[in-house]
Amino acid sequence: MISYLVTVVIFVSIAALVGLALNLQWGLAGLVNFGVAGFVALGAYTLAITAPHVGWFAGLALAAAVCAVVSMLLSLLTIRLEENYLAIVTIGFAEVVRILLLNLGDLTGGALGIADIPRPFAGLTPAGWGDGAILAFALTLVVVVFAFSEALVRSPFGRVLRAVRDDATVAAALGKPVLALRVRAFAVGGAIMGMAGALHAFFLTYIDPSQFTPIITAYAFMAVIAGGRGSNLGLVLGAGSIMLILEATRFLKDVIPGIDGVQLSALRLGMIGVGIVLLLIMRPEGFVAEPHRRLADFFPPESEKA
Amino acid sequence: MVLQLLLNGIVTGLLLALPALALTLVFGILRFANFAVGAMLTLGAYAAYTANVLLGWPLPLAAACAAASVALAALLAETLVFERLRTRGSITLLVASMGVSLVIENFCRFTFGNAARSFDLAVARPMRWNGLRINHEQIITAGVVLVALVLLHLLITASPLGRAMRAVADNAALAAVRGVERRTVARITFALTGALIGLAGVLAGLDRAIDPLMGWNYQTPIFAAAILGGLGSPIGAVAGAILIGVAEEMSALILPVSFRQIVSFGVILLLLLFRANGLFGAKAIRK
C-alpha cells in the first residue's frame, strides 16, 4: 500500500511539473502546446540515452536543454502566425517524436525501449529505499519549479508575458519585444517538460514509446483548466485532484459490472474530455483564479497609509 | 513503380481532400482549427461498420448512415460546445475541440474496443492497366470524392447557402448587417463538414483497418493539406491534399515506409518557413 501511495505521489509530481510548464506556456503566455507528450518523451529519452555516460545530473540538465532548444525552434517557426499554427506544429511534433522513437532503434531501442536508467543518489540510498529517494527528489523538483514559476509570474518578465497574452498589439506598441518574449516563455516551459520526462525515466528506470501517449497532453490541459490558467497554486491543486480522480476511477471496475479494461480506460479518458469542455464553458477561470493586481496594490489610497 | 506510387498518392490525396476541405471551411467561417477532425473520421468509419457489418446493410447505405451520424455529431459539438465558447477567442476553441476529440475517440473505444475491424466486402482482384495495379477501393474512393467535390463546389459557388457561407467567412459583421445569421450558417457548415468527414471515414475504412486511433493517423496529413492550400481556401485544400498524398507515397522511394508520416510534418515546417500563406495565398493568417 505504501509503495502504491509513493507511486501515486510521484505521478502527481510528474503531472504537476508538466502542468506548471503548460501553465507557463498557455496560461501565462497564451501559447497553446498540444505536443506536451512529445516534449516529455524527448526529455525522458535524452536522459535515458545520456545519463549512463555523463551521470544523472548532467543528463537531467541535458534533457532540459534539448527540450528548451527544440521548443525554441518550433516556436520561432510559428510564433509570428496565428495561434492555430503553433497548435498544429506541436501536435505534429509529438507524432514525429513518437515515430522516431519507434524507428530509430539503434538509439532508442525501438518498441523495446531503454532499461536500467540510473537513478539519482542510487549508491547512497539503503536497499529498499530507492523509491523513497525518488519521492524526495520528485517533491524537491516540484517545490523548486513551483517557486521558480511563482517568482517568474511576479517578475517583470511575467507581467510583460501577461500583457502580451492579453493584447500583443498594445504590448508591441509599448516597445516590448513580443516575439522574443514568446519564444523565451515557450523555451522555459519546454525545459520544465523535459525535466518532468527525466523524472519519469528516473522513477520507472525503464521507458518505451507506449508510455508517452497524447494522454499526457490531455491531463496537462485538464490540470491547467481546472486549476485556473495562470495560477500556479491552482495548478498544483488541479494536477493533484485529477490524478486522485483518475486513480480512484481504477476502482470503478469493482463497482460497474461487466466492464473490461479497455472500456474503463476509454471511460476515464472520455471523462477528461468532458471535464475539459465543461470547465471551459462553466468555469473558465478555474477553481483558483489568476491573481489580478489592482493599481491600489501598488499605490495604496491615502487613508490606508499609516 | 513511380507511376504506381503517383496513382496511389493521388487516391490517398483525394481521400484527404474531404477532411481537409471540412477543416478549411470551418476555419474560414469560425477562425479556429477543429482538432476533432481525426476523431470524427474514426466515428464515421465505426458508424459505417455498425450499419454494414452489424446490421448487414449494403455499403452505399452504410456510407450514407456514416455521413448522417458524423453530421449529427458535428452539429451537436457545435451547438453544445463551440457555440457557447464563441466569444472566448480561438485558443479556447482549440482546446475545447481537443476535449471533443477525446470524447468522440473514447466513445468509439468504449463501444467497439481496441481490436481492428473491417467492412464486410468481397475481396476483388485488382485490375491491371498498362502495368498499373488499380484496386476497386481506389476507384470507389476517386469516384466518391470527385462527385462530392463537384457537388460541394456547386453548393459553395451557386447556392444561396454557399453565398451566405462565403459572406460570413469574408466579413461576419457585415454579413450580419445584411441579415445573414452567423449562428445558423455555422451550424449548417458544421453539419455539412461532418458529412464530408464521415464519408472520408468510410473511404479510409476501405483502405485500412478500423481502430480507435485511425483518425489520429490522418490528423497531421489533413492539417498539412489544409495549410498547404492556405487555411480557409477550399480549392487550395483539395490541391494541398493531393500534393500531400503524392508526397507521402513518393517518399517510399527515398525513405523507409515507417517514416512516411513524417513527410506531412516536414511539409508543414517547410511551408511555415518559406510560404506561410500556403500555395494559394489565403490572407490574414499573420498576426
TrEMBL record, chain A:
The keyword Transmembrane applies. It is found in: Cell membrane. One of its GO terms (molecular function) is branched-chain amino acid transmembrane transporter activity. The chain crosses the membrane at residues 6-24, 31-50, 56-77, 84-102, 133-153, 185-207, 219-246, 266-282. Its main location: membrane. It is a multi-pass membrane protein. It comes from the Bacteria. GO terms for cellular component: plasma membrane. Pfam families: BPD_transp_2. Keywords: Cell membrane, Membrane, Transmembrane, Transmembrane helix. This is Branched-chain amino acid ABC transporter permease. It comes from Xanthobacter dioxanivorans. The lineage of its organism: Bacteria, Pseudomonadati, Pseudomonadota, Alphaproteobacteria, Hyphomicrobiales.
From TrEMBL, chain B:
GO terms for molecular function: L-isoleucine transmembrane transporter activity; L-leucine transmembrane transporter activity; L-phenylalanine transmembrane transporter activity; L-valine transmembrane transporter activity. It is found in: Cell membrane. The chain crosses the membrane at residues 6-28, 35-55, 61-81, 93-112, 139-156, 188-210, 222-246, 253-274. The keyword GTP-binding does not apply. It holds the Pfam family BPD_transp_2. Keywords: Amino-acid transport, Cell inner membrane, Cell membrane, Membrane, Transmembrane, Transmembrane helix, Transport. GO terms for biological process: D-alanine transmembrane transport; L-alanine transport; L-isoleucine import across plasma membrane. It comes from the Bacteria. The keyword Transmembrane applies. Its main location: membrane. It is a multi-pass membrane protein. GO terms for cellular component: plasma membrane. Belongs to the binding-protein-dependent transport system permease family. LivHM subfamily. This is Branched-chain amino acid ABC transporter permease.
